[in-house]
Amino acid sequence: MDSEIAFDRSPAFRVYKSGRIERLLGETTVPPSLTPQNGVVSKDVIYSPEKNLSLRIYLPEKVSDVTVKKLPILIYFHGGGFIIETAFSPTYHTFLTSAVAAANCLAISVNYRRAPEFPIPIPYEDSWDSLKWVLTHITGTGPETWINKHCDFGKVFLAGDSAGGNIAHHLTIRAEREKLENVISGIILIHPYFWGKTPIDEFEVRDVGKTKGVEGSWRVASPNSKEGVDDPWLNVVGSESSDLSGLGCGRVLVMLAGDDVFVRQGWCYAAKLKKSGWEGEVEVMETKNEGHVFHLKNPNTDNARQVVKKLAEFVDRKR
């Protein structure tokens, strides 16, 4: 039975009938470096000793030795459908290094436990723990010196791509619900992983193969979900129980890819947010003729650089 495949999502992963998962992507890691890379230094810190969970901090090298230099904070959650990738992969290390260099911010890339070994909602709970850990530094007396010295807690941004964008949204909803007032300035959702059983338009119907892949992957990530892809964790746009008016930030940037199966969901998320009664500002940027997380797959293209530039402008914007 261990050789019989229950769900094949190659080239990303396979799940066998025995329950074993074979991850085909995202398992390679790179170490942090105090030697500047693109003008940025990095180090790993444990945020949850009881769960042995770490995050990677990125800091512009030019301010690392400055006694007091306050920078915006970018807390980033990696994608991978809650199943593959880590905060320490070459893909995310390269992307966050570029983002920090462009935005002149301090970035925190969060590692969370992955499904199916740790199914939904565990990745959300781990991510929430990481946010609370970061916020222990508000008074300047937290356990991590870089955050104490260099973080401007008036400029906190949550961001992520794909599943990480989904996480950033839900944490911002929870921040408002749990009265973490005025903590999150804005969120950046890059090709966010939102879905539902009912197609939004013919784009989703046309991509039947991709649709089945999304639904199968969600079953792997959330095997106990009674609603399947209509689970409010995933069906942020179509679920009646998904109230976006309680989003706990003032600004939202949604970045989309024109050939991405999730593109219509992203546009409808922005539209629903505007109609919800939420009083913030939402901006959408769509890159035509590009697929899901293209900026990670081909980081040296002009379109990928535009993603980094837009993120940097959003974080660095004076408000």
UniProtKB/TrEMBL annotation:
<dbReference type="InterPro" id="IPR029058">
    <property type="entry name" value="AB_hydrolase_fold"/>
</dbReference>
<dbReference type="InterPro" id="IPR050466">
    <property type="entry name" value="Carboxylest/Gibb_receptor"/>
</dbReference>
<feature type="active site">
    <location>
        <position position="162"/>
    </location>
</feature>
<dbReference type="InterPro" id="IPR013094">
    <property type="entry name" value="AB_hydrolase_3"/>
</dbReference>
<dbReference type="Pfam" id="PF07859">
    <property type="entry name" value="Abhydrolase_3"/>
</dbReference>
<protein>
    <recommendedName>
        <fullName>Alpha/beta hydrolase fold-3 domain-containing protein</fullName>
    </recommendedName>
</protein>
<feature type="domain" description="Alpha/beta hydrolase fold-3">
    <location>
        <begin position="74"/>
        <end position="295"/>
    </location>
</feature>
<comment type="similarity">
    <text>Belongs to the 'GDXG' lipolytic enzyme family.</text>
</comment>
<dbReference type="InterPro" id="IPR033140">
    <property type="entry name" value="Lipase_GDXG_put_SER_AS"/>
</dbReference>
<dbReference type="GO" id="GO:0016787">
    <property type="term" value="F:hydrolase activity"/>
</dbReference>
